[in-house]
Amino acid sequence: MPHKDPEKRRAWDRARYWASPEKKRARDRARYWASPGKQRARKREWDRENREKINARARARYRPITITAVNCAGCGKALTGRRGKKFCSLSCRRAKDRALSAALHGEHGNSGISSSSVGAMHELVVSADLIKRGYEVFRAVSPANSCDLIILTKARRTFRVEVTTGHYTRTSSSIFFPPKKKDRFDLLAVVLPNWKIQYIGELP
After folding, report:
1. Average pLDDT of the chain?
2. Please, which residues bridge with residue 149 across strands?
3. Phi, psi (rounded to 5 degrees) for 140
4. 192, part of any domain
5. 128 pLDDT more than 90
6. How many Å apart are CA 174 and CA 187, to the nearest integer?
7. Fewer CB within 10 Å, N or C, the chain?
8. What pLDDT does 67 receive?
9. Can you tell me whether residue 61 is helix, strand or coil?
10. Which domain holds residue 86?
11. What's the CA gap between 193 and 104, in Å, rounded?
């Protein structure tokens, strides 16, 4: 409690002022730079005299770390690198996502089928869906063509359609699919598990 006597109050304020950690550090820095060599010699002497106390304090702070082996959630290999990793590579993460997507939404049913055959199957599925919607559909003859399908509307307008395979993310809130060049199509058809089709872009 502050003193009522002005002299004692000033002495109390000075003591409280110099007792703050910031002022102690400022005071120590001022003492050090006043005679650096003397202060370093004083520190070395104090360390020699209090070596046991320093070691005991260090041992009290030390906590042994138990290292447990962490394996990849996809392939099961031991993980190396930063803490918190769950997968050893991007391919393992995507494979795990596809497996979870299949468990939640069903599989494509493409196991053991080549990627070119899967692409042809998906083009046929999208073609049938577009025909049911009332469009005239034309398939590409060569796989090197710029797009997979051409649709013709009742207004005799043509639109390029690109077909790709998609999967749900682990949260099931969005889908992912291989990147496509936007200048090569007007409408992107993503074939999802259970043969669901999601169109990216507005249907004409």
Report:
1. 80
2. 139, 161
3. -75, 140
4. yes
5. yes
6. 18
7. N
8. 46
9. helix
10. 65-102
11. 10
Residue from 197, 180, 185 nearest 131 by CA: 197
Strand order of the β-sheet with 136-139 is 136-139, 149-152, 158-165, 187-192, 196-200
Number of domains in the chain: 3
Residues 54 and 116 placed together within one structural domain of the fold? no
**Residue 191 phi, psi (nearest 5):** -90, 120
| Residue that terminates a domain, selected from 75, 102, 129 | 102
Q: Is 199 exposed, middle or buried (0-12, 13-18, 19+ CB in 10 A)?
A: middle
* Spatial contact of 191 and 164, defined as CB atoms under 8 Å apart: yes
Residues 84 and 128 in one domain: no
Distance from C-alpha of 119 to C-alpha of 166, rounded to nearest angstrom: 12
63-113 pLDDT, tens digit per residue, is 654 445 578 888 888 877 777 778 888 888 888 877 776 666 555 556 667
Q: Report the candidate in 119, 154, 163 with the shortest Cα–Cα distance to residue 136.
A: 154
39 and 73 belong to one structural domain: no
Tell me if 193 sits within 8 A of 105, measured CB to CB. Answer: yes
